[in-house]
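[step 3/7] inverse_fold.run input=structure_tokens len=553
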């Protein structure tokens, strides 16, 4: 249920109900009665239209037109027919105009959650007009089916539409954008944030900032979270107690950037980051959203920031190894605060008769040709673990459940584990495997099998053995492209069975010493007891340095 877009679902239900109702009205007009076939045909038409994206205003106009066809006055009352037709057309245009105005207004309106002194009155929730017009159209259609006198029905509904439009129009007049922006600037100035967290990303990327919210809440300074896209605003606002502002336009960004904050933190390489970095009176910091050897961790765009937070020396060297020239003085080694709750291993995996192994493949990514997921070989990997007597916890990336081929591959693995459980195994998959957080899973297992992702870097903190599945070019040297693999056991299912490498990991684990060395290299040589405090203190220092910069300007 968490993967369902409720807004899209609501629109779909509305369209299906109204368009089906329209079909029934026409069927009643033609046949004089309601049978099963008009209903079946109506639903089929709706589904076909939805499949090919042909809805737009189809349901609204269809119901209005259908109701008019059934209920319009007949005979010699031409004037009444004309008035009725005018009301139908007017109501249709009114509804379309309302939706356009709200859509255009909400796309550029500043919003804020928990910002003292500012209320998002300028934002007009599309749900309001959605509910009003849906109710009116349902009444319209039902009146047509029941063949009620249409003119009074349409007059009542038109008054409802006019009332809704009047409320919206009053709001637009009462709170013009200039007044909203002025109030917003005043509220930001009064709140006096010490730093900002800036986030711009496409849908399904909220994890990039969500992992940082609990960390920033521990800094102990006032701050604002700046969100650039509407589809991310509610998600982030519901995940934190900090003030969150939606800044969809450049002017709204200016309004918050011109405030007193002395530092801005960015969690990805979004193109819109440049709209924040241009304010030279602040210290702009790139912190990214995970430690890995993937391209985002050495993007040349990072050079535009004043400071770059990395977990360890490996994060610094990675840029140089890929030809990205960033002065050493820009880097700050701060560890990876999210892993502070990952426990260090106290018992060697070689002493386990039935070691517990977490298999956590990554998702397919946005582009198939650059996918790093091992799901196509997942059955082979899991079967090799079962043959070695391991207890498997299968936890695919949540985004894999949105991809049809990945869903089939996940189902295949689940069937293998279900069969093993029927024979007396205690393997976890499905909801039981995802009941724990990822880091809780780390603490519950003896080893890990994963893909090229930040999961292996986070698991490295535990000191436990892990294997990385490489699904890249079989002729390439994966250790050159992904140096972090040196700390793990390499599985290359495209060219060899994973059994040999997994046997080595579970039976002898010769990589323990190099794993400990690379843990320091990639995650910092920081005290475990106060590991996260290094990051928190660096944030405070950056804010203080930013305040000094502002005073010097």
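[step 3/7] decode complete -> sequence:
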């Amino acid at each position: 249920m968490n993967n369902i877009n409720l807004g899209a679902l609501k629109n779909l239900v509305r369209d299906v109900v109204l368009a089906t109702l329209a079909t029934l009205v026409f069927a009643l007009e033609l046949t004089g009665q309601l049978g099963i076939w008009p209903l079946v045909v109506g639903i089929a038409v709706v589904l076909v239209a939805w499949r090919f994206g042909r809805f737009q205003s189809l349901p609204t106009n269809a119901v209005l037109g259908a109701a008019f066809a059934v209920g319009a006055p007949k005979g010699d009352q031409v004037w009444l027919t004309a008035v009725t037709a005018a009301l139908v057309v007017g109501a249709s245009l009114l509804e379309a105009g309302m939706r356009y105005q709200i859509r255009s207004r909400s796309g550029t309106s500043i919003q804020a959650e928990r910002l003292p002194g500012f209320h998002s009155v300028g934002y007009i929730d599309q749900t309001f007009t959605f509910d009003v017009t849906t109710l009116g159209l349902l009444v319209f259609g039902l009146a047509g089916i029941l063949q009620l006198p249409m003119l009074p029905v349409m007059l009542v509904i038109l008054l409802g539409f006019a009332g809704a439009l009047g409320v919206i129009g009053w709001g637009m007049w009462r709170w013009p954008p200039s007044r909203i922006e002025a109030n917003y600037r005043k509220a930001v100035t009064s709140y006096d944030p010490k730093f900002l967290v800036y986030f711009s990303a496409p849908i399904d990327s909220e994890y990039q900032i969500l992992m940082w919210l609990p960390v920033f809440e521990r800094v102990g300074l006032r701050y604002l979270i700046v969100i650039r896209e509407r589809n991310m605003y509610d998600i982030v606002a519901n995940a934190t107690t900090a003030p969150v502002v939606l800044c969809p336009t450049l002017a709204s960004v200016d309004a918050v950037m011109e405030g007193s904050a002395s530092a801005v933190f960015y969690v990805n390489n979004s193109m819109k980051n440049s709209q924040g970095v241009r304010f030279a009176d602040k210290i702009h910091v790139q912190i990214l959203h995970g430690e890995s050897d993937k391209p985002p961790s050495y993007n040349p765009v990072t050079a535009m920031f004043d400071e770059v937070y990395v977990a360890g020396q490996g994060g610094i060297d990675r840029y140089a190894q890929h030809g990205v020239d960033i002065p050493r003085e820009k880097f700050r080694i701060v560890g990876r605060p999210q892993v502070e709750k990952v426990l260090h291993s106290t018992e060697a995996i070689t002493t386990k008769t039935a070691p517990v192994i977490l298999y956590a493949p990554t998702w397919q990514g946005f582009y198939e040709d650059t996918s790093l997921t091992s799901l196509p070989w997942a059955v082979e990997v899991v079967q090799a673990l079962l043959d070695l007597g391991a207890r498997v916890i299968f936890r695919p990336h949540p985004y894999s459940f949105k991809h049809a081929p990945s869903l089939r591959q996940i189902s295949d693995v689940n069937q293998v584990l279900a069969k093993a459980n029927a024979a007396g195994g205690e393997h976890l998959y499905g909801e039981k495997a995802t009941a724990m957080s990822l880091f809780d899973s780390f603490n519950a297992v003896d080893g890990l099998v994963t893909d090229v992702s930040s999961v292996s870097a986070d698991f490295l903190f535990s000191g436990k053995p892990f294997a990385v599945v490489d699904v890249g070019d079989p002729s390439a040297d994966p250790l050159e492209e992904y140096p972090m693999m040196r700390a793990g056991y390499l599985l290359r299912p495209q060219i060899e069975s994973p059994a040999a490498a997994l046997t080595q990991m579970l039976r002898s684990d010769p990589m323990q010493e190099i794993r400990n060395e690379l843990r320091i290299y990639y995650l910092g040589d920081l005290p475990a007891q106060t590991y996260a405090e290094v990051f928190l203190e660096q944030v405070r220092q950056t804010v203080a340095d930013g305040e000094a910069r502002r005073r010097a300007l």
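[step 4/7] annotate
The chain has a mean pLDDT of 83.
The chain has 22 helices and 13 strands.
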